[in-house]
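Service request form, structural biology core

Requester: graduate student, group of Dr. S.
Request type: structure prediction, single chain
Budget code: on file
Notes: please return the result as structure tokens.

Sequence provided:
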Amino acid sequence: MAIRPFSIYHQKNKGILPYAPTVVISALNLLGETITSMMKKNLPLSRVYCLLEPGPVVLLTTAHKGKANVMVMSWHAMMEFEPPLVGCVISGRNHSFNALRATKECVLNIPAANLAKQVVGVGNCSGREVDKFRKFKLTMLPASRVAAPLIAECYASLECRVVDTRLVNKYNSLR
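Core staff response, request fulfilled:
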């Protein structure tokens, strides 16, 4: 499935940048702690790939029929750089798959190392059985362009829409 990021969460101002001209990231040390002596850096939207390459684990959020869910995803790759296009592999057996297929929208939330325990926990349970936001103390924030929530604790969030599903039935691949 191919998903196209079109709005980036700007953590500094706690707001959304519709059709965002920049991506804002925080400088982090190796432990994932924000380095407070450094300023945030603006990146052109055309450089979204530097947030996703070489392929960090992301938290993909969806919302469908009034229920939000979060899943861990590591099988993704930049397919195009401008406008950004991300290829994702999500199993049809995954709880988030049906919501993503039905709504064709999601948020890719990029966690820092300080969320490692929550990321592992989210990846080891199913949203069919548990509210992962509550269980792992993740804060939902409203997105500006999609129903799926942003995760406040993540340092970047990319609001996305599915634009290509031709490989879904064969490979569980979305773009």
